[in-house]
Amino acid sequence: MSGDEQRQINRDSLFMLACLRLSERDPVHRVKIRNLSSGGLMAEGDMRVVSGMALEVELRNVGWVAGSVAWVQGNRCGIAFNEEIDAKSVRAAQTAPDDSGFVPLRPLAAMKQVTPGQLRKI
Hints:
The protein is mainly beta. The protein has a domain at 19-85: Elongation Factor Tu (Ef-tu), domain 3 (Beta Barrel), CATH 2.40.30. The chain has helices at 3-7, 87-91, and strands at 12-21, 29-36, 40-44, 54-59, 63-73, 76-81. It has a 6-stranded antiparallel beta barrel with strand order 1-2-3-6-5-4. A hairpin with a 3-residue loop joins β4 and β5. GO terms for molecular function: cyclic-di-GMP binding. InterPro entries: PilZ_domain. Residues 6-90 form the PilZ domain. This is PilZ domain-containing protein.
């Protein structure tokens, strides 16, 4: 895909945190995701990258995604994914795994109303 074709991919501006690593031995860097499409993203952070460098980024609801640095400008860089992702699932609310022990709370409106006479002192 040429540069002109890549620019036609729909991108959504957003702000979310993600983890980025340059290799499996490299420590994880926290980055801010500024925009996202199915083919890549723009990240901002204090990592040292150069154009063409291979890396992986961990995205919410998707996991680790392989890609490479497309461009660098200051502390921002463009990352092109090796394979397209479902960008809508990244923007969706994070889902808790079934074995997490997470118990959703009921909304306040669904809770039984208690009058002061029903309360007891401890």
